[in-house]
Amino acid sequence: MIKTVAIQGVKGSFHHIVAQQYFGSGVTLKECLTFDEAVQSLVSGSTDAVVMALENSIAGSIIPNYALIDTHNLHIVGEHYLDVQHHLMALPKQDISDIVEVFSHPMALLQCKEFFKRHSHIKLVEDKDTAEVAQRIQNKNLKGVAAIASKLASELFELNIISESIQTIRNNETRFAIIKRENHEIPQKEINKASIKFQLEHKRGSLAAILNVMSDCKLNLTKIQSLPKIETPWKYAFFVDITFKDFEDYKKAKSIMEIMTEEFKILGEYKNTKQ
């Protein structure tokens, strides 16, 4: 039974919203300013699960988070897609001309860069968390400073929304993973998505051969991302998401890929929520 969930950020963050939507309001939140801190809380046993953003429809993948899951031998047991609306907020009785600095998470700034091209007088500063900036503005009564955060954050920290939905593309979704120490979440018959990692021999056609196996076994490749192997220069690990209709097709492909790859690892087997 889930009792405590670690999130990157504070209450009012998008991770907080996902935790509420996925687990309900009955769980206890552990607020962590970094993903490393959230993962360590899970590894140590002080939390039961972690909510972790993995990719955004505008800004792309958060590659280090895949590496965190892999390094600590954790498991993706579920996923949740959130419509992310970024709002510019500050203390009351201010408008856009009063704002001289905006602090926010690098991913949020990246998703809103077109908006700030139209307001070049504002200095953009990278920070650890969207909602934590909103909290800081309230606590320190910071005028001339704005945050990019959720509507929930504006309500919790009593800030005024100066401009709504400032992200470059209106339809802005982030995919969050639910991470646990073990992978026994749902019955096998309900599993239709998997996240895997593999490493290949450095020779012509090795990746193409793996992709052919996936195709022949009726797997749908929804994501592929490479990450350098730090300890072995110019070798790469591939992180792949695949969906399937029949678990037996996936099981067959898995047995073949385990033979064809130098290193094969399952990061998670779970239910596809984007169908």
Outline of the structure:
The protein is an alpha/beta fold. Helix content is 29%, strand content 33%.
Beta content comes to 25-35%
Order of helices and strands: EHEHEEHEEEHHEHEHEEEHEEHE
Helix/strand class: alpha/beta
Counted by DSSP, the helix tally is: 9
Q: Which architecture name of the largest domain does CATH use?
A: 3-Layer(aba) Sandwich
CATH topology of the largest domain, which one?
D-Maltodextrin-Binding Protein, domain 2
Identify the overall geometry.
elongated
Helix fraction by DSSP (H/I, runs of at least 4): 25-40%
Q: What is the tally of beta strands? A: 15
- Uncertain regions: pLDDT < 50 for 5+ in a row? none
- Say which CATH homologous superfamily of the largest domain is assigned: Periplasmic binding protein-like II
- Give the overall average pLDDT: 94
Q: Which value, in Å, is the CA radius of gyration?
A: 21 Å
Provide the domain count. Answer: 3
Q: Tell me about the biggest sheet? A: 6 strands, mixed
CATH class of the largest domain: Alpha Beta
> How far from one another are the termini?
27 Å
Account of the 3D structure:
The protein is built from nine helices and 15 strands. It is of the alpha/beta class and 275 residues long. The strands form three sheets. Strands 1, 2, 3, 4, 5 and 11 form a six-stranded mixed β-sheet that branches. A five-stranded mixed β-sheet has the order 8-7-9-6-10. Strand 13 (220-228) and strand 14 form a beta hairpin. The longest helix is centred in the last third of the chain and has 14 residues, at 247-260. The protein is elongated and about 65 Å long. The model has no long low-confidence stretch (mean pLDDT 94).
